[in-house]
Write a structure and sequence with these properties.
The complex is a heterodimer of chains A (144) and B (134). By secondary structure, chain A is mainly β. Chain A has no helices and 10 strands. In chain A, strands 1, 2, 3, 4, 5, 6, 7, 8, 9 and 10 form a 10-stranded antiparallel beta sheet that branches. Chain B has one domain: Virus Head Decoration Protein, Chain: A (Beta Barrel), CATH 2.40.300. Classes of the chains: A mainly beta (144), B mainly beta (134).
């Protein structure tokens, strides 16, 4: 299964979401996973290829270029757009693509595992949304 | 003179700028002038009515409808375009546009955004005059 295909304009924090603000270190689109780089304290696109870049802090809620302000959800419900998520109860994680979000079950050898949240049916709007609940394990997956 | 031709990715607030956050009422890109509508959301400003000319600031990031948008309300701004030093800039006929006040014409509501201090900086100092040019 590929990464989620997210339309940035369709990404919304829902009531109860906890939101933080920061500065983008590079171009970031709403719906991408972000981590905070220690070297500059800015938000960069997360991926599962290294422990540092997999240490995601949340999901971007607006789009920003480098050095522009960025808000991101660190926990709680986020609407990623209609039809992006189709089933409840699935865990989603940082993927090996910068900023990508994919099914945790798709992670494999040499991926650092960071869970971003799980899918859940929401009522208004009635659709499957992502409940952000970040668990940055710092652990490299091995299957053999 | 036309509106500034802004490269959204190059719009950055300078050190000491005053910034605020709001919720976008429509799709907004960095570098567009914004006003606050009665729904308490941020919309693109223009000079065609007193309400829409009541500019609050300039967007510092992109946002879709109902997404968070950050905007500068005062201080240094790289507007992502070349500006003319000493020129006073304000809202224009175009939604979200920024252009020289000297280009405003009869029936335009005048709102000042700031004055260019270098070719890459506008010192933002909002003035919502609330009057139309006779």
């Amino acid at each position: 299964m590929a990464d989620l295909v997210i339309t940035p304009a369709d990404v919304f924090a829902l009531p109860g979401a906890r939101i933080l603000r920061g500065i983008a270190g590079q171009t970031v689109a709403a719906g991408q996973s972000v981590y905070k780089k220690a070297a500059d304290d800015k938000l960069w696109l997360a991926d599962s290829n290294a422990a540092a870049t997999a240490d995601a802090k949340g999901v971007a809620l607006n789009s920003a270029a480098a050095d522009q302000p960025l808000t991101y959800c660190i926990s709680g419900p986020v609407d990623l757009g209609e039809g992006v998520l189709t089933y409840e109860g699935h865990a989603y994680s940082v993927s090996d693509t910068a900023g990508g979000i994919g099914a945790l079950s798709e992670r494999g050898d040499n991926d650092y595992i960071t869970i971003l949240g799980y899918s859940k049916l929401y009522t208004t709007p009635e659709r499957i949304i992502l409940v952000v609940s970040v668990i940055s394990t710092g652990v490299l997956m091995t299957t053999a | 003179m036309a509106d500034l031709s802004i490269t959204a990715a190059n719009v950055v607030a300078g050190t000491g700028a005053d910034v605020e956050w709001g919720t976008a009422g429509e799709a907004i890109t960095a570098g567009q002038s914004l006003y606050k509508k009665a729904d308490n959301k941020m919309w693109k400003a223009d000079d065609t009515s007193a309400a829409e000319a009541a500019v609050e600031g300039v967007a510092l990031c992109d946002a879709g409808t109902d997404q968070p948008v950050c905007y500068i309300t005062g201080g240094p701004l790289n507007p992502g375009a070349i500006v003319a030093v000493g020129t006073t800039y304000g809202v224009t006929d175009t939604a979200g546009g920024i252009g020289p006040i000297s280009d405003r014409a009869s029936a335009d509501f005048v709102s000042i955004i700031g004055v260019a201090t270098t070719t890459s900086n506008i010192q933002v100092a909002i003035n919502q005059a609330g009057v139309a040019i006779p």
